[in-house]
Amino acid sequence: MAGPPPPIPYGNDTIEVCVSFPGKVNSAGVWEDTPSAILSYSLPLLELQMILIFLVSHIVHVIFKPIGLTFFASQMFSGVILGPAMLGQMEGIRDIFFSPDHLGVETIDTASLFGFSMFLFLMGVKMDVNMALTTSRRAVLIGIISLLAPMVFGLAVYDAFKEPHQSKTLSLERLMGITVESLTSCSVIACLLSELKILNSELGQLALSSAVVGDLSTLILVYFNASTKRWSISPKFAIAHVAILITFLFLIFSGFRSLMFRIIRETPDGKPVKEVYIVIIVMVALACGVFTSKFNQSPLVGPFLVGLAIPEGPPIGSALVERFECFVNGIFLAIYVTTSAMAIQPEKFFEDLTTLKFCILNIVFSFFAKSISCFIASFWGMMPFKDSLAFALIMSSKGVVELSYFCTFRDIKFMSNETFSIFSLGILLNSTIIPILVKFLYDPDARRYAAYQKRNIQHLHGNAELRILACVHRPEHVPALIDLLDITCPTKESPNVVDALHLIELAGRETPVFIAHKKQENVVGRSFEHILAFHQYEEKNGGLVTINSFTAISPPKFMHDDICSLALDKQTSFILLPFHRKWSIDGSVEVENSMIRNLNSCILDRAPCSVGILITRGVLDRKRKSLKMSSSSSCSIGMLFLGGKDDREALTLAKRMANDPRVKLTVIHLISDEYHTDSMNWDMMLDAEILKDTKYGGFSNVGNVMYLEEVSNSGPEAARIVQSIADDYDLFIVGRRHGVDSVQTTGLSEWSELPELGVLGDLLASTDLSTGASVLVVQQQHLD
Questions:
Q1: Cα separation of 630 and 662, whole Å?
Q2: Are 486 and 443 in the same domain?
Q3: Cα(128)–Cα(308) distance, integer angstroms
Q4: Which of 138, 207, 600, 629 is the most buried (most CB within 10 A)?
Q5: Confidence class for position 39, pLDDT limits 50, 70, 90
Q6: Which domain covers residue 306, as residue numbers?
Q7: Could you tell me if 346 and 489 lie in one domain?
Q8: Which 8-state DSSP code applies to residue 272?
Q9: What is the spatial order of strands in the sheet that 731-735 belongs to?
Q10: Residue 100 domain-assigned (yes or no)
Q11: Whole-model pTM?
Q12: What is the tally of structural domains in the chain?
């Protein structure tokens, strides 16, 4: 999972560096006797170098950003411009700024290494350690294939170019090139997804999970190989090295991480972490870099591992990212990438044609092997064709981590300047072309929450937990949602995990805030009543229900982003939304909220899972109280079934409720006269299959489920049936069936006032219907 280079067996060598003492750091400024001598001071020289790199990289980025060029590619282009291929040929610029004999080169290299260390530290902070442990089987498969496929083809190229008496240095150089070209760095993937604004999409999450698996597999292979070599040299040394590594990891992920959680507990909600903690964390990260370098590891490993040990999100993770990300990525990382790209020497490309051919074939074969294997694996997993292409390109992308490998190998003389230049140019072309192609193939606005995995109730495994995201706007929404959650029949084998999200409209000039409330804390403010009620419900259901509470304060037009992002992140199966109307005691509409209605419509269009809209008129609350009081009382549910995926999802939920013997379920199947004589299509076969156990009494052993068939050949007949049973049930469950025409409801859509509820949902929610029953309108997840 790590992004820094693997351990390098440094050889014995002598490097001569001439340094003047005492060091000349600060100049006298305008009072300097010899103005030209200002560049002999390290600090003014470093500042001029940073300004030059900053200006060139940002000018390049502003010019080429409209065509989709990423900031990393702009920085690499800046290095080529300032390097020996272009401006570096000018004697004045080369001698003043980047003379190899000047101490300023060592200073800016040190600054760039510090910047890259901080970049990896922040990448570790932003990553979720649990992702590696909770990845899907598909992500594991893609991650392993994305590593092995290019490695196999790269080794084939290696064998084709292998010479009879090939030197060990050349063999090592080529094998390192094959290894780096086979990698899929999660840090690079995360940066690309973030810049393309698709990090929270299903596509982005799958790519990041697969990259984490690939990185983890690479680490295992690299450290196993390194440990084997150490064992062959000295078993005692190998055991000591492994013991130190395990101890270090234990201290980081047990001791240090525990301290982080303690700081989080001591920090009130919405309040920033104390500044002293931020300083200490950064110092620990840098100190761990020094520690790992002492044990023959890359000094970049330490900061990255410390970053991984820090819990992501607020208050610590977000505070570190907020304070350092802009400065590190905009200044220090730009220095690292630009100075690395300045080392590209185009004049050396043709010094050895065999090396040139090997590098080009390795780059091309590795790219196509990785992209084709990832495309096949994702397309085989029911991902749309264009999305599969975009996914394959993302998994084949290269970036700063691969560049850092080549820089490290060049610096320790394991790789020639020619090979470094060719592979670095390959990274530049890769990072330039791939983002442009991905933008062409994948529209982030339309596809941000597109889902490829089945996240609905119907396809849950038998004993899987039901994950529900319950959204609340006003205090009166809480009892109704808890009433419904209470009759979903959670059990020890199939418990409920409810993420309660309180949505607050952004007022004035406040900044949008998303708060993840900690358990057993004293919540204050506008979310107090809502969160308290949900946690009391959790306590009453001892172990059968788990509540996670959140508050989102954002503008109404962005609220759907908070809901869909949380649903994706928590792998939710069902989003539960309150209706936009509030009824008075006499049955008339008291309040209509257009903001809530627009939000509900937006969620129905974009949700990555199934959605339910709860229309409550108060009857369910009274029945819930009786359910709690006596085991003999009951709650009556009517499920109107027409057919189709939304109705199958609604029936699956109704069956789950009927597992409670106190719930009486009646399934009313509306059919036409030709229903039993029509030829069966695939959709009708699926309907018949899900109705079978309900129809023939195989579902319940306590007799609390009834199946009825009602004939309807038109919309008015369906309306009369609904009116006749409106007072017979406490809760109606119907499928939305948006855009689906049927004989049974012909003509109803023309009179629909609330199309987001479907024809039957609109009919049951109508003010013309005199009933006190609540209604749940269900839409199954849209799978691409």
A1: 9
A2: no
A3: 7
A4: 207
A5: low
A6: 29-447
A7: no
A8: P
A9: 513-516, 545-554, 496-505, 466-472, 574-578, 610-615, 774-779, 731-735, 635-641, 663-671, 705-711
A10: yes
A11: 0.70
A12: 2
Number of H helices, E strands in the chain: 28, 13
Residues 443 and 540 in one domain: no
Query: 138 Cβ partners below 8 Å, 6+ apart?
Result: 206, 377, 381, 453
What tokens does 388 get? 């599969």
Q: Using CA atoms, how far apart are residues 96 and 52, in angstroms rounded to an integer? A: 12
| Residue 648 belongs to some domain of the structure | yes
pLDDT tens figures, 40-76:
677 777 888 888 888 888 899 899 888 888 889 998 9
Closest CA to 417 of 99, 84, 686: 84
Q: What is the CATH number for 178? A: 1.20.1530.20
Spatial separation of the C-alpha atoms in residues 107 and 343, rounded to whole Å: 16
For residue 280, being part of any structural domain is answered with yes
Where do we find the tokens 């004035």? 508
Are 434 and 577 in a shared domain? no
The length of the chain is 784
Instruction: Please state the rounded mean pLDDT for residues 147-168.
Output: 86
Residue where the block lists tokens 């009494």: 697
Q: The domain that contains 605 carries what CATH number? A: 3.40.50.12370
Amino acid at 91: E
Question: What tokens does 290 get?
Answer: 């020094």
Q: 445-460 burial, b for 16+ CB within 10 Å, e for fewer?
A: eebbbbbbbebbbbbb
Do 681 and 746 reside in the same domain of the chain? yes
User: Does residue 1 form part of some domain?
Assistant: no
Q: Are residues 685 and 547 in the same domain?
A: yes
